[in-house]
Amino acid sequence: MKKFKNVFLLFIPPVIWGFSFVAQTVAIDTNIGSMSFNMAKYILGTSSLIPILFIFDRKDNKEFQKESLKPLLKYAGLAGCVLFLAAWTQQYGMELGVKLGVANITGLAGFITAIYIIFVPIIRFFGGKKTNVQTLIGALLAIIGLYLLCVTDGIGSITKSHMFLLICAVLFAFHIIIIDRYAGKFSPIKFSMVQFAVVAILSTICAFIFEEPNVEQIKQAGLPLLYSGIGSVGIAYTFQTISQKNADPTFAGIVFSTESVFSAVGGALILHEIMTARGYLGCVIIFTGVILSQIETKKNTTKESSR
Question: Helix, strand or coil for residue 307?
Answer without folding.
Answer: coil
